[in-house]
Amino acid sequence: MEELITYLTDPDTLTDKLLPLVASWAGNIAMAIITLIVGFMIAGWLSRSLRKLLSRTGRVDPIVVGFLTSMVRYGIIALTIIAVLGEFGIETTSIIAVFGAAGLAIGLALQGTLSHLAAGVMLLFFRPFRIGDFVEVNGISGTVKDITLFTTDVATLDNKKVIVPNGTIWGNPITNFAANGTRRCETVMGIGYSDDIDKAIGVMRALLEKDDRILPDPAINIVVSALGDSAVNLTAYYWTEAGDFFATRMDMNKWMKEAFDKEGINIPFPHRTVILENAAAPSPSADG
What we know:
The protein has three domains: about 1-110, Helix Hairpins (Orthogonal Bundle), CATH 1.10.287; about 130-175, SH3 type barrels; about 180-265, 2-Layer Sandwich (Alpha-Beta Plaits). Helices cover about 55% and strands about 20% of the residues. It is built from eight helices and eight strands, in the order H-H-H-H-H-E-E-E-E-H-E-E-H-E-E-H. Strands 4-3-2-1-5 form a five-stranded antiparallel sheet. It is elongated.
């Protein structure tokens, strides 16, 4: 112990070895602090600039904006820390290799979850549907209530909440019933072969033209769509706003039936004739 104290207090040792070592470490520490400060400043500046740029477009969902800016910020911070470690002589290539191997292992373990994350980013970026749209995704029909990075919440017509993984949505056809703003409705009415086709068409057209929910353009079109076994089918094609589609179609089914009844237009329906035979029971034998 005395020898160590003597060695450290020797003027030659202080001058030739300890002072250069302290100066070197002080320089490395100063450079590391400066690198950290500059790296954190660049990370903050880039993330803020990217957030402003993406928010200004109005096309990127706030969730995606937060996700992308966080990735940029933490990515720069990670590079800054690796650079700081390099200032102290630590082999950074080994650290990068370790992080790469760990990232690969985590990616393989969470490949299903990461696929939903990637699909969520695509859904939020390209916007095939928005909150409030009525859609059909992966065989499920309903109104979109929420879109996150991993799942999409859909409320069905009977108000059941269905949570759909984003990976199953992006990998399958998506039907958005509200995307175009308007929809074409169809109402099919069957009349008897002896009924007047033009009269029936006139009754249907009159009902459609007086409903304000039905758009004037494209024009109403009523055609003879089929000659069935027992009925002539008339199909009315008309357009409504997407939000009025279901109510208008249901109302027309009711009102056209009532109008046909009022005008004496027959709506055929299947009939079944039952014939009962009452055969006389054989009389008992006189010999019996």
